[in-house]
Amino acid sequence: MVVSRGARVRQPLEHVSAGRTPGRPDLEPRRRRDRCGHAPGRRKLVVLRDRRPQHGGDRLLEHRLGARRRRAATPGLVRRQPRQRLLSRAVPLENPLFGVVGSPIAHSQSPALHRAAYAVIGFEARYDRTEIGDGGLADFLRGAGVERRGLSVTMPLKREAWSIAATRDRAAELTGAVNTLYRSGGDEDAPFAGANTDVGGIVDAVRSGAAREPRHVLVLGGGATASSAVVAAADLGASALTLAVRTPERAEGAARLARSIGLAVDVVTLDRIASIRSDVVVSTLPGGTPLAGLPTAACDDGALLLDAAYAPWPSELVRYWIAGEAPVVHGLSMLVRQAARQVRLFASVDDAEWATVADRTTAAMFDVVGLDRSGIVRSLPDA
Q: Where is the Shikimate dehydrogenase substrate binding N-terminal domain (predicted)?
């Protein structure tokens, strides 16, 4: 019998007999074995799963003498260790461990967001944070126990996470950046798969605040998040893109990416953005970055602004946009949306199940950061 959160769940059990020679094998007919064995409760148990969903059917062994030799190849048998519960194949360990890594990490709201989401969907897991500098991710993972099932990856580790991942989703392959590492499948030693949920986070955040599909997107910055914004622009339906950077060389990678996925792309310096007309402006510049110019034409046209940086808040760009009464989507909206996608990967929630919990889960996460679920900011606290 296996106990889960105080509830008793009946499971068929088999007492495993000691593997030893019978006391008088010369008196045993043919290949029968003697009947002596250990008393119940003296040795480890084998738990037979009763055809539970996602499990293989139980395969019982008629030939007792072959049980020890064949057990490892029998998917219907799970050896139960002390204090271990049987969970689904997707998350095989009791109370699995996830967390956020990067540097600096003290300001991260990921722990609070994930814990709120886990509470809604009933996912029993831990989530911590670890400060790791550039180049330190591989050593961290080598020292991690089997209970470590996934990581939310922030700067400066997204490129390193990409190289560590055994498999990657489309967004990660395109951008060369991984912000999510997770063990796919139920094996304890399964390799880490990689995903880039920043792309989907940008798409979801913009769609929550945009009234129409954008034709042109202006992206400020040329780093890893800018590459995610490029892919997001294509996923949103845009056909053209402008990259604004300090020096044109910083945008070479993002510009190549944009062309490879069918976007018409221009590259300008940040002091040449005033006259650019756009439907959506995505700033990927670090918080507090001074601007050499402002995208005044885009603001005058009522373009939606998504400022990915949420600390310090508000930025000079956000102040200008709100003063111009143009729509602003808070950077925390992108954080919530991409974290929700991570939750799905960590907890192995399929599309049908997610449809039943998505609204409540994202609402709980928006409550953590104190935002309306649209993510739209219409005024500033000191306004």
A: 100-181
Residue 127 sits at φ, ψ, to 5 deg, of -145, 120
Residues noted as catalytic: 158
Note whether 222 and 180 are within 8 A (CB).
Answer: no
Residue 319 carries which side chain, given as an amino acid letter?
R
Burial per residue of 162-184, b for 16 or more beta-carbon CB atoms within 10 angstroms, e otherwise: bebbeebbebbebbbbbbbbbbb
Q: In sequence order, which residues have a C-beta less than 8 Å from that of residue 348 and are 6 or more positions away?
A: 88, 90, 91
Whether residue 223 is found in the same domain as residue 247: yes
Tell me how far apart the alpha carbons of residues 127 and 99 are, in angstroms, rounded to a whole number: 5
pLDDT digits (tens, 9 = 90+) for 194-217: 999 999 999 999 999 887 899 999
- Count of residues in the chain: 383
**H or E element that contains 192:** strand 192-195
User: Distance (Å, rounded) from C-alpha 163 to C-alpha 159?
Assistant: 7
Looking at the structure of the chain, the number of domains it has is: 3
pLDDT digits (tens, 9 = 90+) for 101-155: 999 999 899 999 999 999 999 999 999 999 999 999 999 999 998 999 999 999 9
Q: Are residues 159 and 250 in the same domain?
A: no
Query: Is the residue at 87 inside a domain?
Result: no
Q: Which domain holds residue 317?
A: 211-326
Write the CATH number for 233.
3.40.50.720
Instruction: Count Cβ atoms within 10 A of the Cβ of residue 194 and give its class: 0-12 exposed, 13-18 middle, 19 or more buried.
Output: buried
* DSSP run (H or E) holding 206: helix 197-209
Bigger pLDDT: 86 vs 130: 130
Task: Round to whole Å and give the CA distance between 351 and 362.
Answer: 15
Answer whether residue 301 is part of any domain: yes
Residue 23 lies in a domain: yes
CA dihedral 145, 148, 154, 156 (to 10 degrees): 20
Picking from 301, 309, 321, the residue whose alpha carbon sits closest to that of residue 380 is 321
Across the range 318-329, mean pLDDT stands at: 95
Q: Is the domain of 43 the same as that of 122?
A: no
Residue-wise DSSP of 292-312? S---HHHHHTT-EEEE---SS
